[in-house]
Design brief:
about 575 residues; seven-stranded mixed beta sheet; binds fe (ii) ion
């Protein structure tokens, strides 16, 4: 479908259900003079407060746009302009956000993005999107985190990130969950806005056609960019309101069909110090125009506890509301860092999430937790409660209480009742170059083992004068919760098909298919075989989550306590 066909779709912008969404242009725009250039780029969609009736169209332009707007049918919707000035380079970025409401549920719409000073004004950027269904209806969503950009000039970027975006399009989800560490701009501190631009232009290939809903990761934390370093992330994305003053955009919830999606910022609770960091020996010196002082070696931007408990309090309210709502069957949580990862090369599990959030996931029967951070794929058994004193200090052998998640079953049957336990997936498999698909394994009995971060790994000077590192402090535990790990590649995509079931009191299911990109590893850690980016995603495993519908009289009985959740 051409841009002109899209624009000719009619007065409401509605398209026939059989129309094929336009493939958004992914090529980077040629360098152009920035002054006064309002040509849209980096176009992406997010859900509005009600995904059945609203979306937000967001984009960036090289210079300030005049009358930025979205056209949908005969409607012209003025966009809000938001800008920020990067705290290191001093470069200003102009972003635009058009809230499109009043839409029909489950409908396909055509839209165009433009401005008075759009170089392409005669044939503006255009694409399509579909709104979410209303009520209990089947739908598909996809997920991975840790995407990066295809421009290998940047630290951690890799060509697989382009194929990952293409793969997402090929599965045609209603929307995508992007589980943090979007592009690693903070590892490229002098050129953060250029990294974000390459990310946005690559991401547009799918995110202009369907919402991509992000959560912040440790690599969204940038020096000089706001109290948590999220100025770039928050300026570029318009996310559902969480109602917590001062913390908009960091976490949120939204409803699609019978699923409550809860997106969290685990930077607030993890022990790990993994945000912006100056290792040295060189000092990081921001541009004079920023007015920011030089940042000395050994400085890190550590934000654990930044909300003062506000996020966890909000989370409990959101989960309680979800579990007392008869129209909500499923609760899916998205976050970046991991409560249950046994990656050896990667970060492993973090005790902070286990302490602060897993008890809430148990209490309110969270069905599924989607994370990233470790660049691989791992699936847990259904988990509920904790095994005490299961960890050991690897140096001394001393007992450490890692609050090891307790597997309610270790039978890998392929069908899991998540009303009895929460399944965790590690999906840090988007496109970052450092694949982490090697995993902890006991040398004596071959069982899965995990390292668990139990305290803050603050910067410490190394043997090299002026150079600092953040050596993590780990306990080790037998990962009795670990069900399946993909050693063949660190790259892939998870595809979720929600089946709401057919009758009140019946069963609902989510079928999960994980597809992986074998051969994409720069080096496979198991074989040492070199690889390269590949467009070929093949099925690794399929499993099904089931639970009783919430409109069943017995559906809200807690498996762990045997007590009923009171409905209001
Ligand atoms: Fe990360």
């Amino acid at each position: 479908m051409s841009r002109r066909q899209v624009l000719a779709a009619g007065g409401t912008g509605l398209l026939a259900a059989t129309a094929t969404p336009a493939r958004a242009a992914t090529a980077r725009r040629a360098a152009r003079t920035t002054a006064g250039d309002g040509t849209p780029e980096q176009v992406h969609l997010t859900w509005g407060d009600d995904p059945a009736t609203s979306v937000v169209v967001s984009w960036v332009s090289p210079g300030p746009a005049a009358r930025p707007q979205v056209r949908i049918g005969q409607r012209v919707i003025a966009a809000e302009t938001r800008e920020y000035t990067d705290g290191i380079s001093g470069e200003t970025v102009w972003t635009y956000h058009a809230r499109v409401g009043g839409l029909r549920p489950g409908a396909l719409y055509a839209y165009a993005v433009t401005a008075d000073n759009d170089d392409d004004a005669a044939d503006p950027f255009s694409s399509t999107f579909r709104t979410a269904p209303q009520g209990r209806a089947p739908f598909r969503f996809t997920s991975f985190g840790d995407l990066g950009t295809p421009n290998t000039e940047w630290v951690l970027s890799y060509g697989q990130s382009a194929y990952a975006v293409e793969a997402d399009e090929s599965f045609g989800p209603l929307f995508h969950l992007l589980n943090g560490d979007l592009c690693y701009a903070n590892l490229n501190p002098g050129v953060q806005t250029m990294v974000w631009r390459d990310f946005g232009d690559n991401n547009q290939g799918s995110a202009a056609n369907r919402p991509w809903m992000p959560c912040p990761g440790n690599h969204e934390v940038e020096f000089g960019n706001g109290p948590q370093g999220f100025a770039s992330y928050l300026t570029r994305y318009t996310l559902p309101d969480n109602g917590v003053p001062g913390f908009g955009g960091r976490w949120y919830a939204l409803r699609v069909g019978s699923v409550l999606f809860v997106s969290l910022d685990a930077d607030d609770v993890v022990y790990q110090d993994a945000g912006a960091f100056v290792a040295g020996p060189d000092t990081l010196t921001p541009a004079a125009s920023t007015g920011h002082p030089p940042i000395a070696p050994g400085t890190s931007f550590y934000i654990r506890g930044y909300s003062g408990g506000a996020q966890t309090a909000w989370l409990e309210q959101a989960l309680a509301a979800g579990r007392t709502d008869e129209s909500v069957d499923w609760i899916v949580v998205q976050m970046h860092q991991c409560a249950a990862s046994s990656s050896a090369r990667g970060n492993g599990s973090d005790l902070g999430i286990r302490q602060d959030w897993l008890p809430l996931f148990d209490r309110y029967q969270v069905d599924l937790v989607l994370a990233g951070h470790d660049h691989n794929y791992e699936r847990s058994f259904p988990l509920r409660g904790a095994d005490p004193d299961a960890g050991r200090d690897p140096a001394t052998g001393a007992v450490v209480n890692t609050l090891r998640p307790h597997a309610v079953t270790t039978a890998d049957t392929g069908v899991f009742d998540t009303s009895a336990g929460t399944v965790h997936l590690i999906l840090g498999c988007g496109g970052a170059v450092d694949n982490a698909n090697d995993y902890g394994t006991s040398r004596t009995d071959g069982r899965h083992q995990a390292k668990v971060l139990t305290c803050a790994n603050r910067p410490a000077v190394t043997a090299t004068p002026g150079v600092y590192a953040r050596p993590p402090s780990y306990a080790v535990e037998d990962a009795t919760w670990s069900a399946r790990r993909d050693t063949s590649t660190g790259y892939g995509i998870a595809v979720f098909d929600v089946d709401p079931g057919t009758e009140a009191g019946g069963q609902t299911s989510i079928t999960v298919r994980y597809y992986h990109a074998v051969g994409a590893d720069p080096v496979n850690p198991a074989t040492g075989a070199p690889g390269r980016p590949t467009p070929d995603y093949t099925e690794f495993e399929t499993f099904t989550l089931v639970r009783p519908r919430a409109d069943s009289p017995s559906a809200t009985r807690s498996a762990s306590t045997g007590t009923s959740v009171t409905r209001t």
